[in-house]
């Protein structure tokens, strides 16, 4: 029998339907794979084998009785940011020690309602703040990819590093993730997987630990474009519990695949050609343009003049919102408490010990830019710049552009403990330079693997779409995937 | 704009994070690097531009003003580091 963990969601769905194997057998195959690999990769911070087997058996019973959901019997991993009833939920942080919520996030509840099986919780940068998964209280995740002939450990990107690594290493069939500035798309690009951040409002944020509420969106990381489409269909919903959830029916994204891009207009923004960008990234971008042109799309040079201001504006807006959202972690309601001589000292001690360095930096920046006398100079200005960034996109879409093609990241995966980035937080922030604009404008963006660099590491392209036009992104990404092929790491772990 | 050590300590106090003198000195450098980076926003002409308040154009959803949830005190206090009879316990705040 073939290794069941090598199947995509679509393949497993068909084979389960044909009764080639059971959901329990599929789940056991994944649990064994996790046991063998997690010591080396550190992708899971908690596994739930008993619950997984119970859910798988229940799925097999449903199938026997003729009730089959869209994800019936499919084993998934869940980013530690999503609340899962009675299960480890700590957002990769020390301050949520021992937190097991008594409720389920809307996104994960949607997945279980469609028949999926939970394997466990996936590692991530603390409170989703990071681009390398190195800020996790649970230690870094190791990228399943290594440079050719090298045994140096690389980062999987972040903040959804555990999700991306687990999908790339076949430790789950697919995973939930979240994206505030690039946290789905950058790790997907670093691991040769597909990740989509849908339009703001498409997935409910209820039950997802909040980082920057006006930017946070959930989305899937998957092995291919089809699996990403299947997962997003289940994750997305209209939810009364999230006031920013949009009242629009969820389309059948999978049905968009295989459609032609003939006659579509693909915008190529001049501002994404950065100084010092590696030649390989430029080559990959040109290759993507050529593929879409060959498929009949029209290529149009465009300008998004405020692109360079997106990242600095983000580093005001996101920390400001984070400083407010993270005020709730005070040692009273859940998680860690470090005593002090009075209540204020208890708060200060708890937050000093419970938060890691990156989270503290961002909470401090956020507190500063919102403090008396600085609000107009920083926060208000950043929100005005955000209006201009959004307007740039509206202008090009208004001029007939259907989707925008850019590189996903400015480089391939880098080493764990990179000295340059450790010394300068801004260097790490630059990882999100191509992805952050999309969050600032609330648009959908997908990262799709497009090739390998000279060292054999995966590189991705990004497609940016109009609000709620995820279908165009899936269709176009599928064309790129068909041309580029799929990329899987050579197994060196477990 | 940049911050000095005293400002770092004031901000840490506002954020309720204990910061030692060593940490404050370190944070001063890091925060100034970030503030230096965001400084480029001052080049943007924002005259007459409205600040973004909602990334998607939508009316704020309203629901009926009615009790739709509740009776979950035990669930809510279940994860508290210290609780009694469904109350959170904290150090004395009023003498």
TrEMBL record, chain A:
Record keywords, A-Z: ATP-binding, Ligase, Nucleotide-binding, Protein biosynthesis, Transferase
Catalytic activity of the protein: L-glutamyl-tRNA(Gln) + L-glutamine + ATP + H2O = L-glutaminyl-tRNA(Gln) + L-glutamate + ADP + phosphate + H(+)
Keyword Protein biosynthesis: yes
Group of enzyme by EC: ligase
A molecular function (GO) term: ATP binding
Listed InterPro entries: Amidase, Amidase_CS, Amidase_dom, AS_sf, GatA
Annotated GO CC locations: glutamyl-tRNA(Gln) amidotransferase complex
GO BP field: translation
Active site: 79, 159, 183
Enzyme Commission designation: 6.3.5.7
Domain (Amidase): residue spans on this chain: 25-473
Self-association and partners: Heterotrimer of A, B and C subunits.
Family: Belongs to the amidase family. GatA subfamily.
PANTHER family membership: GLUTAMYL-TRNA(GLN) AMIDOTRANSFERASE SUBUNIT A (PTHR11895:SF151), TRANSAMIDASE (PTHR11895)
UniProt function note: Hydrolyzes indole-3-acetamide (IAM) into indole-3-acetic acid (IAA). Allows the formation of correctly charged Gln-tRNA(Gln) through the transamidation of misacylated Glu-tRNA(Gln) in organisms which lack glutaminyl-tRNA synthetase. The reaction takes place in the presence of glutamine and ATP through an activated gamma-phospho-Glu-tRNA(Gln).
Name of the protein this chain belongs to: Glutamyl-tRNA(Gln) amidotransferase subunit A
Lineage: Bacteria, Pseudomonadati, Pseudomonadota, Alphaproteobacteria, Hyphomicrobiales
TrEMBL record, chain B:
Taxonomy, superkingdom: Bacteria
GO molecular function terms attached to this record: asparaginyl-tRNA synthase (glutamine-hydrolyzing) activity; ATP binding; glutaminyl-tRNA synthase (glutamine-hydrolyzing) activity; transferase activity
Key words of the record: ATP-binding, Ligase, Nucleotide-binding, Protein biosynthesis, Transferase
GO biological process: glutaminyl-tRNAGln biosynthesis via transamidation; regulation of translational fidelity; translation
Reactions catalysed, as given in the entry: L-aspartyl-tRNA(Asn) + L-glutamine + ATP + H2O = L-asparaginyl-tRNA(Asn) + L-glutamate + ADP + phosphate + 2 H(+); L-glutamyl-tRNA(Gln) + L-glutamine + ATP + H2O = L-glutaminyl-tRNA(Gln) + L-glutamate + ADP + phosphate + H(+)
Binding partners and assembly: Heterotrimer of A, B and C subunits.
Family: Belongs to the GatC family.
Name by which UniProt lists this protein: Aspartyl/glutamyl-tRNA(Asn/Gln) amidotransferase subunit C
Organism lineage: Bacteria, Pseudomonadati, Pseudomonadota, Alphaproteobacteria, Hyphomicrobiales
Gene that this sequence comes from: gatC
């Amino acid at each position: 029998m073939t290794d069941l963990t090598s199947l995509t969601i679509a393949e497993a769905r068909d084979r389960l339907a044909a009764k080639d194997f059971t959901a329990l057998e599929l789940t056991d195959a994944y649990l064994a794979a996790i046991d063998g690999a997690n010591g080396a990769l550190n992708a899971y911070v908690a596994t739930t084998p008993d619950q997984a087997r119970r859910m798988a058996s229940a799925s097999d019973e449903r199938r026997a009785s003729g009730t089959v959901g869209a994800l019936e019997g499919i084993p998934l991993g869940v980013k530690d940011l999503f609340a899962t009833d009675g299960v480890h939920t700590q957002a990769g942080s020390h301050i949520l020690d021992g937190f097991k919520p008594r409720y389920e996030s809307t996104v994960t509840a949607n997945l279980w309602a469609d028949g999926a099986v939970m394997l466990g919780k996936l590692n991530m940068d603390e409170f989703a703040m990071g681009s390398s998964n190195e800020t996790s209280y649970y230690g870094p995740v190791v990228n399943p990819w290594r440079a050719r002939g090298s045994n140096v450990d690389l980062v999987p990107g972040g903040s959804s590093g555990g999700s991306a690594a687990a999908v790339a290493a076949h430790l789950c069939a697919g995973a939930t993730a979240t994206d505030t500035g690039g946290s789905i798309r950058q790790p997907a690009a670093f691991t040769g997987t597909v990740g989509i951040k849908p339009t703001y409002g498409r997935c409910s944020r209820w039950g997802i630990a909040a980082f920057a509420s006006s930017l946070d969106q959930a989305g899937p990381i998957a092995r291919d474009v089809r699996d990403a489409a299947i997962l997003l269909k289940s994750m997305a919903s209209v939810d009364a519990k999230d006031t920013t959830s949009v009242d629009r029916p969820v389309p059948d994204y999978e049905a968009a695949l295989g459609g032609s891009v003939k006659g579509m207009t693909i915008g190529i923004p001049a501002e994404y050609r950065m100084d010092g960008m590696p030649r390989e990234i430029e080559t990959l971008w040109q290759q993507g343009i050529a593929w879409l042109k060959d498929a009949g799309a029209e290529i149009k040079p465009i300008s998004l003049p405020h692109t360079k201001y997106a990242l600095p504006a983000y580093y005001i807006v996101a920390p400001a919102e984070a400083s407010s959202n993270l005020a709730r972690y005070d040692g009273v309601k859940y998680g860690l408490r470090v005593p002090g001589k009075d209540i204020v000292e208890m708060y200060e001690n708890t937050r000093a010990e419970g938060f890691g360095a990156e989270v503290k930096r961002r909470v401090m920046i956020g507190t500063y830019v919102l403090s008396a006398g600085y609000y107009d100079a920083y926060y208000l200005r950043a929100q005005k710049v955000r209006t201009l960034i959004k307007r740039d996109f509206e202008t090009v879409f208004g001029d007939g552009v259907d989707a925008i093609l850019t590189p996903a990241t400015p480089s391939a995966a880098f080493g764990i403990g990179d000295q340059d980035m450790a010394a300068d937080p801004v260097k790490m922030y630059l990882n999100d330079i191509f992805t952050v604009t999309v969050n600032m404008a609330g648009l959908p963006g997908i990262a799709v693997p497009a090739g390998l660099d000279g060292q054999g590491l995966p590189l991705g392209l990004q497609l940016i779409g109009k609000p709620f036009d995820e279908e165009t992104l899936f269709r176009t990404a599928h064309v790129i995937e068909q041309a580029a092929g799929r990329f899987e790491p050579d197994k060196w772990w477990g | 704009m940049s911050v000095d050590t005293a400002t770092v300590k004031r901000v840490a106090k506002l954020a309720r994070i204990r910061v030692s003198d060593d940490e404050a000195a370190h944070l001063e450098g890091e925060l100034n690097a970030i503030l230096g980076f965001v400084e480029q926003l001052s080049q943007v002409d924002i005259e007459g531009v409205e600040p973004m308040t909602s990334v998607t154009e939508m009316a704020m959803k309203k629901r009926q003003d009615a009790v739709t949830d509740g009776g979950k005190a035990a669930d809510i206090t279940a994860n508290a580091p210290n609780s009694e009879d469904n109350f959170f316990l904290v150090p004395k705040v009023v003498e």
